[in-house]
Every structure is written in C-alpha cells, then in structure tokens.
Design goal:
The chain contains 2 helices and no strands. By secondary structure, the chain is an all-alpha fold. The protein has 2 domains: 50 residues; 35 residues, no CATH class. The radius of gyration is 22 Å and the shape is flat.
C-alpha cells in the first residue's frame, strides 16, 4: 500500500531533524530548502483536499495529458528524422516529436 500524505510529512520532518549529520554547510542548506519546500507542498495539498471535501466538490479532476509517455527504449523503435539533426545542438531528431529532445529547439 502506498504511504499516506501524513506518513510522507513525518518522513520529511525526520529528515529535517537529521540535517546536522550533513557536514558541508552549503549542502545542509540546500537539503533544508528542498525539505522545507516539500513539507509546504504537502501541507498545501492536505489543506486543498480538506477544503474540497468540505465543499463536497471533486478532489481531483480527470484531464487529458498532452505529454508524451516515456516508454522503455526496447518497447518502441525510435524513428529518426533524416538529416544532420537539430540545427541548434546537433542531437538526432525523432520523427514523432516536433522539437529537439535535448535542447527543446523547434526546427
């Protein structure tokens, strides 16, 4: 079973309590900022779910994803576009996407 949001918050709080174990002060601060941001997102998420439940509205909306699913390399053959590749970074271009997967340039 997947962990609950409360378990996730407790995990983050335990990690935050262990920050003194990180010797490098810059790394300690970087990890602290990441943990604090994740804790705030978890709190915001819990509050949003509570409000939606009180209003008896749908907690989550079904949306169509416009993103391309990432599949294992062996599950689909990659069709390359003929030519030298991306004019900006020279990465080979794939036929099923309209931009360079490396730099985002739209040829």
């Amino acid at each position: 079973m997947a962990p609950t949001i409360d378990e996730f918050r407790r995990y983050l709080q335990a990690r935050r309590n262990d920050l003194d174990g990180i010797a490098d002060p810059d790394e300690r601060e970087r990890v602290r900022v990441r943990i604090d941001a994740a804790l705030q997102e978890a709190l915001d998420f819990s509050a949003a779910v509570e409000i939606r439940e009180e209003l008896k509205s749908r907690v989550f909306e079904e949306v169509d994803s416009s993103a391309r699913l990432i599949e294992a390399a062996e599950s689909r053959p990659v069709e390359r576009v003929d030519g030298d590749g991306c004019p900006k970074c020279e990465t080979p271009l794939e036929a099923d996407i309209e931009f360079c997967p490396a730099c985002g340039h739209k040829p």
